[in-house]
């Protein structure tokens, strides 16, 4: 006599067990962290007072400060972001090509370039900035290189994924005509990844504008230096002016990127 | 005599390309002059670079207790802020979804999310350090804000993309709003939501090693003080630890994503 199990279940026992394990680990990790984290409760209860006090000191904005220092620093920040994004391409494009399995069909090469991309992404741009400040001294060069080295991993990874998704038919057709390696790259791969390339670069530029605003905190140039100075001198009205101008630039950059994307891609 | 037809070159260089290259080159020169970048300065730096690399290797793990303390604090910050931030994002994301909520609820919620997103975590961390003092609490609050800015936005977008048929079917049975959310909306977005959450845990782990640079606790603080004391071999040890923990985090989140597919 055969027995049919009429009890329908969406997940197998193993799947249920795995899910349950994830929930359990999450709750256990959360509780363990809450119990052991080093937080002084008085500081937490006092936070609303402190925050409202800080904002009351910040108001009104010190608008006279803008033309003196903020404007030049803001332009410097934009330069750092743009130059950093351009410099990145020198490293990111070759690494992306080496990482794409349909360009270089060699697992060892793919793996090596992936290693570079991952380590570039794992180190935060602020940490890259610390390193480059130690090498080149405080200033714009450190900022540009920090932005460039952090962006390599991001652009390289996304570009490699875009290259791997292209239609290989055109590539094969070009190869069949006896086209050289460079021609295949420029006339076969490039037209297909062009929209993805521009949208990735614009996206990263938008992120870089945000990131370059804080690099100055470790001495790598830009508006962050002004922010740091104002904060160390407790000039809160200047701080709020700087924060407001960063906010305005970030919003403008985002609007610009959205508009360009609508027109071009 | 055979007539050789003169075909136009199909691969003609477009004028837009040429203009683009010229504009970029002009910009590079302008920016370099504007910011006093020079090759001499760059080459001088390269010399310092090799000296720095000499001092960075081999990495020095002798003060591993300090390293471990910072690492544990970073992980505590990342876990707590991810759980709390994601939990809050569940509600905020739902309130921001335009197909579930009237405009007078969703529009203000969207403004709040945009505000959370528009500042870099480091700037938020500075403000919180000034407000609640040095230590893990400032890092926690910072990353909660950052998580809301990211997860709530993605979650709202995921909810806006759901199929409305199931919502209507469940609504037709006379179900309450809570039941509609639990049985019509959540099942459709759950696996994507797990994906976002794992991504956010990853990025909180990365950022928790960074917010310490401005005094908000975690491994970043250890890193920054090692930099300031010129202990570059210890800096390498910390950086290697950070890379290792992030790779481990990516591996684990990949596993979790597989489980919840």
Automatic annotation (TrEMBL), chain A:
<keyword id="KW-0472">Membrane</keyword>
<protein>
    <submittedName>
        <fullName>Phosphonate ABC transporter, permease protein PhnE</fullName>
    </submittedName>
</protein>
<keyword id="KW-1133">Transmembrane helix</keyword>
<keyword id="KW-1003">Cell membrane</keyword>
<keyword id="KW-0812">Transmembrane</keyword>
<dbReference type="InterPro" id="IPR005769">
    <property type="entry name" value="PhnE/PtxC"/>
</dbReference>
<dbReference type="GO" id="GO:0015416">
    <property type="term" value="F:ABC-type phosphonate transporter activity"/>
</dbReference>
<feature type="transmembrane region" description="Helical">
    <location>
        <begin position="240"/>
        <end position="260"/>
    </location>
</feature>
<dbReference type="GO" id="GO:0005886">
    <property type="term" value="C:plasma membrane"/>
</dbReference>
<feature type="transmembrane region" description="Helical">
    <location>
        <begin position="20"/>
        <end position="44"/>
    </location>
</feature>
<dbReference type="Pfam" id="PF00528">
    <property type="entry name" value="BPD_transp_1"/>
</dbReference>
<keyword id="KW-0813">Transport</keyword>
<comment type="similarity">
    <text>Belongs to the binding-protein-dependent transport system permease family.</text>
</comment>
<dbReference type="InterPro" id="IPR035906">
    <property type="entry name" value="MetI-like_sf"/>
</dbReference>
<dbReference type="InterPro" id="IPR000515">
    <property type="entry name" value="MetI-like"/>
</dbReference>
<feature type="domain" description="ABC transmembrane type-1">
    <location>
        <begin position="74"/>
        <end position="257"/>
    </location>
</feature>
<feature type="transmembrane region" description="Helical">
    <location>
        <begin position="126"/>
        <end position="149"/>
    </location>
</feature>
TrEMBL record, chain B:
<feature type="transmembrane region" description="Helical">
    <location>
        <begin position="234"/>
        <end position="252"/>
    </location>
</feature>
<feature type="domain" description="ABC transmembrane type-1">
    <location>
        <begin position="71"/>
        <end position="253"/>
    </location>
</feature>
<feature type="transmembrane region" description="Helical">
    <location>
        <begin position="210"/>
        <end position="227"/>
    </location>
</feature>
<dbReference type="GO" id="GO:0015416">
    <property type="term" value="F:ABC-type phosphonate transporter activity"/>
</dbReference>
<feature type="transmembrane region" description="Helical">
    <location>
        <begin position="15"/>
        <end position="33"/>
    </location>
</feature>
<keyword id="KW-0813">Transport</keyword>
<feature type="transmembrane region" description="Helical">
    <location>
        <begin position="134"/>
        <end position="156"/>
    </location>
</feature>
<protein>
    <submittedName>
        <fullName>Phosphonate ABC transporter, permease protein PhnE</fullName>
    </submittedName>
</protein>
<feature type="transmembrane region" description="Helical">
    <location>
        <begin position="75"/>
        <end position="97"/>
    </location>
</feature>
<keyword id="KW-1003">Cell membrane</keyword>
<dbReference type="InterPro" id="IPR005769">
    <property type="entry name" value="PhnE/PtxC"/>
</dbReference>
<keyword id="KW-0472">Membrane</keyword>
<dbReference type="InterPro" id="IPR000515">
    <property type="entry name" value="MetI-like"/>
</dbReference>
<dbReference type="GO" id="GO:0005886">
    <property type="term" value="C:plasma membrane"/>
</dbReference>
<keyword id="KW-1133">Transmembrane helix</keyword>
<keyword id="KW-0812">Transmembrane</keyword>
<feature type="transmembrane region" description="Helical">
    <location>
        <begin position="109"/>
        <end position="128"/>
    </location>
</feature>
<dbReference type="InterPro" id="IPR035906">
    <property type="entry name" value="MetI-like_sf"/>
</dbReference>
<feature type="transmembrane region" description="Helical">
    <location>
        <begin position="168"/>
        <end position="190"/>
    </location>
</feature>
<dbReference type="Pfam" id="PF00528">
    <property type="entry name" value="BPD_transp_1"/>
</dbReference>
<comment type="similarity">
    <text>Belongs to the binding-protein-dependent transport system permease family.</text>
</comment>
């Amino acid at each position: 006599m055969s027995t049919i199990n009429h009890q329908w279940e969406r997940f197998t026992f193993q799947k249920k067990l795995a899910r349950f394990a994830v929930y359990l680990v999450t709750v256990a990790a959360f509780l363990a962290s809450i119990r052991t984290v080093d937080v002084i409760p008085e500081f937490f209860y006092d936070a609303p007072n402190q925050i409202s006090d800080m904002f009351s000191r910040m108001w009104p904005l010190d608008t006279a400060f803008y033309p003196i220092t903020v404007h030049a620093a803001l332009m410097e920040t934009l330069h750092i972001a743009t130059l950093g994004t351009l410099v990145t391409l020198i490293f990111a494009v070759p690494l992306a090509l080496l990482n794409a399995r349909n360009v270089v069909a060699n697992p060892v090469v793919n793996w090596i370039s992936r290693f570079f991309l991952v380590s570039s992404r794992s180190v935060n741009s602020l940490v890259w900035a610390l390193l480059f400040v130690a090498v080149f001294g405080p200033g714009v060069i450190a900022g540009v290189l920090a932005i460039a080295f952090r962006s390599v991993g991001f652009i390289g990874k996304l570009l490699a994924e875009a290259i791997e998704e292209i239609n290989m038919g055109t590539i094969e057709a070009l190869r069949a005509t006896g086209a050289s390696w460079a021609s295949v790259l420029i006339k076969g791969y490039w037209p297909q990844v062009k929209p993805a390339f521009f949208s990735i670069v614009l996206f990263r530029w938008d992120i870089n504008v945000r990131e370059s605003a804080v690099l100055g905190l470790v001495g790598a140039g830009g508006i962050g230096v002004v922010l740091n100075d104002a904060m160390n001198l407790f000039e809160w009205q200047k701080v709020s002016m700087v924060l407001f101008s960063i906010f305005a630039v970030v919003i403008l950059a985002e609007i610009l990127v959205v508009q360009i994307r609508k027109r071009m891609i | 005599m055979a007539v050789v037809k003169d075909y136009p070159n199909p691969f003609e260089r477009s004028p837009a390309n040429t203009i683009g290259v010229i504009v970029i080159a002009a910009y590079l020169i302008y920016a370099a002059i504007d910011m006093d970048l020079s090759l001499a300065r760059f080459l001088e730096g390269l010399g310092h670079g090799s000296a720095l690399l000499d001092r960075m290797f081999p990495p020095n793990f002798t003060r591993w207790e300090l390293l471990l303390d910072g690492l544990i604090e970073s992980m505590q910050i990342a876990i707590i802020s991810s759980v709390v931030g994601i939990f809050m994002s569940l509600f905020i994301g739902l309130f921001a979804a335009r197909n579930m909520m009237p405009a007078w609820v969703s529009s203000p919620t969207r403004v709040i999310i945009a505000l959370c997103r528009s500042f870099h975590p480091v700037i938020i961390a500075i403000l919180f350090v000034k407000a609640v003092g040095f230590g893990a609490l400032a890092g926690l609050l910072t990353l909660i804000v950052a998580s809301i800015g990211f997860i709530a936005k993605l979650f709202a977008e995921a909810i806006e993309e759901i199929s409305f048929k199931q919502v209507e079917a469940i609504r037709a049975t006379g179900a309450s709003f809570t039941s509609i959310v639990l049985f019509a909306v959540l099942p459709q977005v759950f696996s994507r939501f797990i994906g976002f959450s794992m991504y956010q845990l990853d990025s909180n782990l990365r950022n928790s090693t960074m917010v310490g640079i401005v005094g908000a606790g975690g491994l970043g603080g250890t890193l920054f003080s090692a930099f300031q004391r010129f202990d570059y071999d210890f800096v390498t040890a910390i950086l290697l630890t950070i890379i290792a923990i992030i790779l481990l985090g990516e591996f684990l989140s990949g596993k979790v994503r597989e489980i919840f597919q």
